[in-house]
Write a structure and sequence with these properties.
five-stranded antiparallel β-sheet; 439 residues; disordered N terminus; Aminopeptidase; seven-stranded mixed β-sheet
């Protein structure tokens, strides 16, 4: 199992309105070639039209622009690579609203429309320019509303990869036996899971007997390039003392033993997890029908920790030192601070919804002086929608992200977990305290 690969096509042109039809035709044809349906391809094309028009007005018609479309198996990405000193992405915030008060607001409304046409986006800058990446997923039918077959105890079994029809059967068994917040993203769509496995994003293994009866399974995926996350182990109607859960975890560990992975993590463990294999990282709280559920994240290091350097804001330095000491991770903390330099005037956050668990994970896209106001606005709009499981993931390998720390603390978030090697550096997961009033 290696991090998934993708195929891509590229178009180089100028940010000139004369090339608008060429740009949109390129994206539409590429999206459909990579498997998007007509409706999804049209949505990505409309987003392209709005962004290309905005860039023509913002960076000038003589400016070079590179557009790249790539297949991710179950999704298509479109990347805009361009040079610009400023690119105001505030319209991509969940809290943005359309406005027609002036010409600038009208242009930004186009970006707002584009942001609602795609499933998620990324924004990054480096010495070669800025990169805006849009992601549009294929549309899949929900799992059919039929009763899953009754799983029977297995006397003998082997652990192996499932073929596509076994995989869909395994998905239906997981959905029938476990809460949605303990299943991997996408498990409501069996066809999507088949594509996610085909493109290498998920790697499942099942415990199955010679007659094809499935007694359990486990699913793993890469989280970055050095950490593997797994879901499960899932066990279906097996007798007490069954070794299926342990064998599934052993198979997962053995499968990545010679890979670049340095750690194995589960954030949503099932009750069958053999906890003695792992070390507890910390807990998160998730609302549900029966009340609040507390889930403990578990981690296993696969090789000797040689240490790393991470960035930290002074406001969370104490938490990080305590966690690194408790977990025996060798880390050098480098401080980030504001020394009077002029920050960007705006911030941008992305929001990933987990409707099954009534939760949202916020991630930083851009940091600016309005960080506190923006975080507060996201908290306000999400709590009004009765979404109380609010998480925020911060990459300590990217120093600019650490500047969000004071804003998070002021808005009722607290650091709960350190996920080693889950980003460019370690990830810190913040969670907003449930019931905390908005200041």
């Amino acid at each position: 199992m290696q991090p998934p690969q993708s195929s891509e096509v590229t178009l180089s042109l100028r940010a000139d309105p004369a090339f608008l039809q060429l740009a949109t035709s390129f994206v539409e044809r590429a999206a459909m070639m990579f498997g998007l349906g007509r409706d999804e391809a049209l949505a990505l094309t409309l987003a392209t039209e709005e962004i290309f028009t905005y860039l023509c007005e913002g960076i000038g018609s003589d400016s070079p622009l590179v557009m790249t479309c790539a297949s991710g198996g179950y999704y298509v990405t479109e990347e805009f690579h361009f040079a610009a000193k400023h690119f105001d992405m505030r319209a991509f915030n969940l809290t943005a609203r359309a406005s027609f008060e002036d010409e600038t607001a009208v242009r930004e409304t186009g970006l707002l429309i584009a942001s609602r046409m795609v499933d998620r986006f990324h924004f990054a800058g480096n010495d070669t320019g800025l990169r805006l990446t849009l992601v549009k997923e294929k549309a899949y039918p929900f799992a059919p509303d039929v009763e899953a077959p009754i799983a029977k105890p297995l006397k003998e079994y082997s652990v192996r990869e499932p073929h596509p029809e076994e995989l869909k059967l395994f998905v239906s068994l997981v959905n029938a036996h476990y809460r949605a917040d303990l299943t991997p993203p996408g498990f409501a769509f069996p066809g999507k899971i088949v594509d996610m496995v085909s493109c290498g994003e998920y790697a499942p293994e099942i415990a199955v007997d010679d007659s094809g009866r499935i007694g359990g399974g486990i699913v793993r995926r890469w989280d970055g390039t050095r950490l593997v996350e797994f879901f499960g182990p899932y066990v279906f109607n097996q007798p007490p003392g069954s070794s299926i859960a342990r064998d599934l975890v052993d198979a997962c560990i053995n499968a990545i033993a010679r890979s670049p992975a340095v750690g194995l993590i589960t954030r949503y463990p099932t009750p069958e997890l053999p906890q003695e294999y792992f070390e507890a990282l910390g807990t998160l709280f998730f609302p549900g029908v029966g009340g609040v559920t507390e889930l403990t994240a578990f981690y296993r290091h696969l090789e000797e920790d040689t240490g790393a350097t991470v960035w930290s804001h002074p406001s969370i330095e104490g938490f990080l030192k305590d966690e690194y000491r408790r977990l025996a991770f060798a880390r050098e903390l480098l401080p980030v601070r504001e020394d009077g330099e002029l920050p960007s005037p705006f911030s941008v956050l992305s929001a990933e919804f987990n409707r099954a668990g009534r939760g949202v994970t916020l991630r930083p896209v851009w940091w600016g002086s309005d960080a506190t106001e923006l975080v507060a606005a996201h908290v306000d709009i999400l709590t009004r929608e009765d979404i109380s499981g609010l998480l925020f993931e911060m990459d300590l390998g990217k120093p600019w992200q650490c500047h969000f720390s004071p804003a998070l603390l002021e808005c009722g978030f607290e650091p709960r977990l350190v996920l080693p090697y889950a980003g460019k550096g370690d990830l810190v997961v913040f969670q907003r305290r449930m019931g905390e009033p908005l200041r």
